[in-house]
Amino acid sequence: xxxSSNHNPAxxxxxxxxxxxxxxxxxxxxxxLKEFRNLGIPCFIADDIAGAYxxxxxxxxxxxxxFGGSVIRPDGSADxxxxxxxxxxxxxSLQQLNQLIHPRVxxxxxxxxxxxxxxxxxxxxxxxxxxxxFDKLVDKVICVYLDYEERMSRLxxxxxxxxxxxxxxxxxxxxxxxxxxxxxxVVLNYEGNPRQRQVRxxxxxxxxxxxxxxxx
Length: 216
Fold this sequence. Notes:
The protein is globular and about 55 Å long. Strands 2-3-1-4-5 form a five-stranded parallel beta sheet, with helices on both faces. It has one domain (5-215): P-loop containing nucleotide triphosphate hydrolases (Rossmann fold, 3-Layer(aba) Sandwich). It has helices spanning 29-38, 46-53, 57-67, 80-87, 91-114, 148-159, 163-171, 176-182, 195-215, and strands spanning 17-22, 43-45, 121-125, 140-145, 185-188. By secondary structure, it is α/β, with parallel strands linked by helices. Helix 2 crosses helix 5 and helix 3 (57-67) runs antiparallel to helix 5 (91-114).
C-alpha cells in the first residue's frame, strides 16, 4: 500500500493549495470536514468517489478478474461485504484493490482541483493518505485524532461490527498516533473539545500559506 505515488500525476501549475485530511476510521473526519465546508472550502471525499466506480461495468469486470465471480451478486452488482472480507484479511489483495482504485481517485481529484481555480485551498479527504503516499502529492496534511478505545466504541455502535472485525480494518492502517505525529495540523476530536475553533485556527493558517504561495 505504500509508495505507489509514482503512478499518480502531479498537480497542474496554478491549482489551489492542496490539503489532505486524514485520520483513523471512526475518528470523526466527516464532522471536521463539515466545518471546513461551512467555511466555503471545496472538499473531495475519496471514498465517495471510489464508491461510484462500483456502478461501472468495466470496473466490475476488473473486480471479478481480481477476486473471482463470488464477489459479484446475481444481479451484477458488487458484493462489497465479500470484497471487504477478502481484502481486510489479505494484505496483497488489499494492495491490488488500492492499485486499481487510487491512481484513478487522484486523477479525479486533480480534475476537481482544476474546476475550483479560485479556491484558496482544497481538501482531499482519505483515511489512507500516508498508506498510499498521497501526503507526497499535497502541500499540507491535517490529521483528525481520537484515541483507540473511543474510536472502537463509536465504530461498534455505528457499524454493528465486532471488535475483532474492526481490529482487522485498523491493522491495515497506520496507527492514529503515527498519523498525528506526521501531520502538519491536528484536530483533537473529543466531545467538548472546541472543534470549530480548532478548524478556524487551521483555516486561517492555510489561508496565509495560500496567499504566500500565490505571491511567489
